[in-house]
Amino acid sequence: MGISNCKKSLILFQLILQLTIIHSAITPQSSTEFIKSSCSSTTYPRLCFSSLSVHANAIQTSPRLLATAALSVSLSSVKSTTTQILKLSHSHGLSSRDVSALNDCLEELSDSVDSLAASISE
Q: What is the mean pLDDT of residues 71-99?
C-alpha cells in the first residue's frame, strides 16, 4: 500500500517544522559561541561578549554583521559618553582649564561619532 499524497505532504511539513525548530534552537548557541570566539582575541573579551551577545540573533555567525554590531554598540556608547561630558562641562565651579579639557574631549568624541557612523555606512 502506498502513502497518499496528503500524508506525504503532512509528513514532509512535520519534518520541515521539526528541522526549523531544531535549527532555531541551535542557532543562538552557535551565534553566541561565534561571538565569544571572536571576542576572545580582543583587549576586553568579557566586555566585548557582554556588549555583543545581546545582538546574537542579528549577528548569527556573520563576521560582517558582527563588525556592524560592534560599530553600532561603540557608536551608542560614544554618544552616551558625549552627553555625560557635555553635562559635566556645564557644571558650576569648573576652572577654565577643566572646561578647556572637557571641550577638547567633546571634540574628540565628535570626531569618533563621525568616524563610527561613516564606518557603519560602508
A: 93
CA dist 35 and 73 (Å) reads 14
Residue with cell 574628540: 108
Q: Which three cell numbers mark 8?
A: 506525504
Q: Are 72 and 120 in contact (CB under 8 A)?
A: yes
Average predicted confidence (pLDDT) for the chain: 84
Q: How far is CA 83 from CA 49, 63, 90, in A?
A: 25, 30, 11
Q: How far apart are the first and last CA of the chain?
A: 60
pTM: predicted TM-score of the whole model, two decimal places: 0.72
From the list 52, 82, 50, the residue with the least C-alpha distance to 68 is: 52
